[in-house]
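# nightly structure sweep
# worker-07 picked up a monomer target from the shared queue
# config: single-sequence mode, recycle default, output format = structure tokens
# input follows
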Amino acid sequence: MASRSWTFSVFNLKLSHSRPALHHPKNSQCLFSKFNPHPSFPSFYGAQFKSHAYFSPREPLIQYSRLVSKVGAQSEGSSGGEANSLDSDATLEETFSWSSVIFPFLFPALGGLLFGYDIGATSGATISLQSPELSGITWFGFSAVQLGLVVSGSLYGALLGSLLVYPIADFLGRRRELIAAAALYALGGLITASAPELNVLLVGRLLYGLGIGLAMHGAPLYIAETCPAQIRGTLISLKELFIVLGILLGYLVGSFKINDVGGWRYMFGLSAPIASLMGLGIWTLPPSPRWLLLRAVQGKGSLQEYKEKAIHALSKLRGRPAGDKVSDMQIEHTIASLKSAYTDQESEGSFLEVFQGPSLKAFIIGGGLVLFQQITGQPSVLYYAGPILQSAGFAAASDATRLSVLIGFFKLVMTGIAVLKVDDLGRRPLLIGGVGGLALSLLLLSAYYQFLWNFPVVAVAALLLYVGCYQISFGPISWLMVSEIFPIRTRGRGISLAVLANFGSNAIVTFAFSPLKELLGAGNLFLLFGIIALLSLLFVIVYVPETKGLSLEEIESKILK
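# output follows
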């Protein structure tokens, strides 16, 4: 449904008296920042004004935000020095159509879907690749090291991509980074699918992984910076749902093509058209207005030029007429907020600024979440779900495989619950409840392997509890917090480090699981994961703040200062 033009009423002015102080806005929820009085509005001091949005009844619009700003100014009376004060209340109700919100979320979120698709498709593709009858190639006899490189090649590429994007994130911008990610996805998928030999296949896997590294950095960044604060949690959590959908799509394609000769080529190659759709879609989106203003404050171009581009971008993102007054005011106040925040600092931060001051606090919160997300055993528990189920009494590999697919659907359902509730309940309640459940499930797995081995239902119940709790806590909320917690000066670099920490710890835990299992035994290993989960619960309770309903500027000013 196409967005139609809106007509905004003029301000209706009412006088209000007897407030002596200059008030700052409370609980404001605006796309960019608190609606502080514009410098060009001095005559409005002492007046109360309210702005309402009117729109055509032909298209239902959904109201998501209300912005309240109170401004009082003291004035000296000319006789008797009597102080009088006037107060002004500004209420801005921002409305928008779903059609203006869907596409700025959908196309970046395809980057998450392609990441998940690689996980699901690779599981079937490796079976097809190693089959003398079904591989359709003469070089199917892989060694353990070669097979490991095929499986984890995209992970190494993602690690490399996270490193590469650190110094160039702000130069590229969110939109161009996502376009580059889509191109790497498509190129990597095509090279892998058409590979005539192993080395070419590994190059394709590495390029695809570079796309993952850029997409998992750029997608949450673009979504967080362009969506309204009231639904930021929902949309970024929904990106996690797209990852789960991608995993299931990979499983589905694998199940259809597993018996075809050369089926692995179809499994890897299907990513190319999806990546093309992602790239073309993002090409139609505007740059992030926050990124444009950041470049202006960094002195990378004319402030007026970047301001006009940011107004145009915000108008397009909200489905408003080009250059509308509401977008103009929001951009003006964001510029004022940025200038005020960075008056006494260099226009562009140093290379290591992410490890200093508010940025360091943000990195401890965001980096800590993605680190605990992995070292509580997430890759191990999920990657080894089949063997766990087999050892729990489901002896046939086919039985374990079917149950693994059912667990995938369960992940989807639980992620959906998180998406629906994250902006109602908040981040902390979901994290605290979910991580507490993770710890319990890991302790149950430990107990099963040590003294409850006659009760396989315990292992299955613990797996389901683990998956459910992970998908309402660490799964979506970690990436949500990472995308919104960093100050705008270091947001690009900070998120790249968080992505690097995520993929690095994923690789370490995945590769260390089998040796640790042999050294400690399964029971003690899951006990170790359970203890780490309890530590992560303490970390969440002590360090992780609640950001529900706050704009990114409010998070920076209220939480990080």
